[in-house]
Design a protein that fits this description.
2 helices; single chain; alpha+beta; 4-stranded antiparallel beta sheet
């Protein structure tokens, strides 16, 4: 909890997606979460809006949510496949992850390093080192054509290949990844049957 501080927009962008994933993990216990500030309220000192109130310019956290929604958008109902068998191995105990499946049968693994991104004493943004990890996809699942790694906290309009870091093909089953303190999305696109 970081209330009472003016957070930098980079930190807000990180915490928005992390809070969504934390809610997802405990969705049976939490009814909903809400980002309730569209505009900054400068009179009360609230600078957490998605849009700056002075000029209505979208702020970094706006682009983060927009990119997140664009990457995970799927309006088609479907019968999901069995869960994706995967493991993320790391010496760190602070990695958090889950996955979602889309109607095109692709899976997206969502992973981040759950450490502080803001120092409450100095009131400054922290930039912790990325954590090395190994992603293993189980052999029970048929092969994947491509693995795309994307980071939705980047600014601006996310082009289809922006943020591409790893690519695998065929029956690739393990990849070295470097996990930051913001959410990464590893998109697993299956081979066509």
């Amino acid at each position: 909890k970081v209330t009472g501080f003016k957070l930098p927009t980079n930190v807000i962008s990180k915490y928005i997606l992390r809070s969504i994933l934390q809610w997802w993990s405990f969705r049976q216990l939490v009814d909903c979460i809400a980002w309730y500030s569209l505009l900054d309220d400068y009179d009360s000192g609230n600078h957490y809006g998605l849009v700056a109130s002075q000029n209505l310019e979208p702020r970094r956290q706006y682009w983060t949510l927009r990119n997140w929604n664009k990457l995970l958008n799927d309006s088609v109902s479907f019968n999901p496949d069995p869960p994706l068998p995967y493991i993320i191995e790391s010496s760190s105990t602070t990695l958090r992850h889950t996955f979602v499946q889309k109607s095109n049968k692709s899976f997206t693994i969502l992973v981040y390093n759950d450490v502080d991104s803001f120092d409450r004493k100095t009131q400054r943004e922290l930039n912790p080192l990325r954590v090395p990890a190994l992603l293993r996809i189980g052999t029970a699942h048929p092969g994947f054509k491509t693995f795309n790694l994307r980071e939705p906290t980047i600014l601006g309009n996310m082009k289809p290949d922006s943020g591409l870091v790893i690519k695998g093909n065929g029956h690739g089953r393990k990849f070295s990844i470097s996990v930051p303190d913001h959410v990464q999305m590893i998109e697993c696109i299956p081979l066509r049957k």
